[in-house]
Amino acid sequence: MGNQGRILAIGPTDNTSDQRTPRQRLRLIPEEARSSFVPVVPARYATTPHEWDMTRTAPDRPRADGVPIEVTGRVRTASGRPVAGALLEVWSANHYGRYRHIEDHSGLQLDENHLGLGRVLTDDEGCYRFWAISPGAYLARPDIGRWRPKHIHMSLSGGSSRLITQMYFPGEPNNATDPMAILMGDAFERNIGRPREVGTADVVQAFDFDIVVGGRNATFFE
Prior knowledge:
single chain, 5-stranded mixed sheet, dioxygenase, 4-stranded antiparallel sheet, globular, mainly beta, Intradiol_dOase_core, disordered N terminus, oxidoreductase activity, acting on single donors with incorporation of molecular oxygen, incorporation of two atoms of oxygen, Protocatechuate 3,4-Dioxygenase, subunit A, 4 helices, 27% strand
């Protein structure tokens, strides 16, 4: 009952989460069928140089418009074990709130120097690092005046699993009304990047964003 009340409190939304929700109970595959399955072979991921730098489309190209930021963090399990060798795929809107995607019909300004796509691998300690342009907020639902706060999407792949989360930014005025934030309740705080000192990095702002896979303190995945 409590979950239903929380969902209804979100108000009008795009219904995509509802469309992805199973309508029937999951069916367990019989043991005799499972024994015939081919064992899962964990994927071995690889990236190319400079994919971690999303502030440029290539090393010899100008930087995109906006504020360059660095995001660092550590991926670990609920027990604290580092998740090494996982592939972190990152995508975000540009400084003006526009995605370079055929389905983005917002009409907001594109930036020829911004693709908004990057990939990195976690090291032996589960740590990662990438540079990006601080994304703009955008009006996701003009019909109901709903804005999406600035955020960065992250997809984590390891073994046979793929999980997706988003990093939000502190102090954003649209955080409180974001549908995902409302669903997460108090757990939303775990999805906000923590500002830190820039250090020697060639960026203007820096954030830490640790990802916990599984358990009660898991970072929200969809």
